[in-house]
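[job 0412] stage=fold_complex status=start
inputs:
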Amino acid sequence: ELKVEQNPLFLSMQEGKNYTIYCNYSTTSDRLYWYRQDPGKSLESLFVLLSNGAVKQEGRLMASLDTKARLSTLHITAAVHDLSATYFCAVAFTSGTYKYIFGTGTRLKVLA
Amino acid sequence: SAVISQKPSRDICQRGTSLTIQCQVDSQVTMMFWYRQQPGQSLTLIATANQGSEATYESGFVIDKFPISRPNLTFSTLTVSNMSPEDSSIYLCSAGQGQSYEQYFGPGTRLTVT
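[job 0412] stage=fold_complex status=done
writing structure:
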């Protein structure tokens, strides 16, 4: 069974602090995506990671992919309130057809 | 990137009726997908909408309940048939394209079944 797990599920952090969200998946894939979702909104693409060792950074967010460990991380540096949202990872699989399986999501709340 | 629109944005429907959701992409795309998202939950893939052939459904979803059409490379519809309150959810259309198969999402359709 294809599984994508994130932890933590909920994260409350103070502004200025650093933290990491983890995304583990159960089978081979070399394509992983991170999304942001604000309440009542659709999903916004943050990062596309296409190979082992890939690292992408945008502002206070940095994502990395380790395909051997089947693990991706989303690191938050010096959090600000505007980063409060739900973050999803999604893993691409080819199983007869190309598809994406989403992680459980991490609800982030940054406290001023 | 692709810009995706969905219609309707929300609807309230009676039990036993059907609703068709439309998804329009502003450019030709290789892949289109339909997801369901319950409030506070993650996204669950319903099916891959294949152009010119039957959709590929995920476990737990069947064509009789969720018929899907994709007549061309920019448009797809999802019908939620014989609705029950358990079908109340947000339905999201997405499109994947490019070498990275980056996925773009529509704004979603919020469905409430009474």
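[job 0412] summary: Chain B has no helices and eleven strands.
[job 0412] exit 0
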